[in-house]
Amino acid sequence: MGGVPQIPPFDEMYHAKRIVYSAANPMRVLSFDPNRGIAGAYCPWPPLYDLTAGAAARLLGGVTPAGVVARAAWFPVVFASLVAAVIAAFLSRRIGWGTGLLAGVGVAISTDFIDRSRLGSIDHHFLEFPLVLGIVAAVALVHRATDAREALRNGTILGIAMTAALLVQTALLLTGAIVLATVLLRTPGGRFARWAAAVGFLLSAAFVFLYRGGQPPGYPDDHWYLGISHAAALAAAGTACVAQVWLLDRGAGRATAALLSLAPGLLVIASVPGAPEALLSGSRFLGGDPWLASIVEFKPLFFGAEELWWADVALLGGGFFLTAGMAANPLWRRGGRALLLAFALAYSLAAISSARFLAVSAPLCAVTGAIAVSDLRRTRGALAGGLAATVLLVSSLPLTAGRVVSPAPRVTPDMVPFLHTAAFLRSPAAAPGRVLAPWSYGHLLNVVGGRAVLLDNFGTMGGQVHFENATAATLATEEKTLADYCADSGVRYVVLQDPLPYFGNHAETAGYPRSAFERPSTIRGTADSATPLMKSTFWWRAYFEGGRERPGRREGAAFRRFRLVRVERAPPPASIRSTVQVWELVEP
Question: What is the pLDDT averaged over residues 269-288?
Answer without folding.
Answer: 85
